[in-house]
Prior knowledge:
The protein has about 150 residues and is mainly alpha-helical. Helix content is about 85%, strand content about 0%. It has five helices and no strands.
Amino acid sequence: MRWIWLAAWLGNCFAVAGVSGHWTAGEIPGWYRTLARPAIAPPNWVFGPVWTLLYALMAIAAWRVGLAAPSPLRTWGLVLFLVQLGLNFAWSWIFFRNHAIGAALAEVVVLWAAIGATTLVFGRVAPVAAWLMAPYLAWVSFASVLNWAFWRVN
């Protein structure tokens, strides 16, 4: 039964990744190409592999927390995880579908805080889960700066 939960968390995370990736890919050759690129922007090919790894690590982290003994803290951690996953999904919509770079910048700050809160709670429930979230928090920290840089030059 425990492996079914891993598959469910992977399914949730990669469903978000799939839809977000579809929105992103559709905008790369058009709108995104017209933007001035800040100096810190990595090549476009970097994002797919990085996000694939991050979504897998996120899913494993949520799964590890889900395996912990039932408690209000475990429930709170998983609720926070779903909130940050929704915010992750929303960022792609705001930035790539709505072309709202400034609004995406405001949203990514909220996303970053939600990831941080999730990571802290996960650390109290299953410490390995917090470590699995750490690369995601680091990447979204960079992505926040990158979003700001895009906003600044455009």
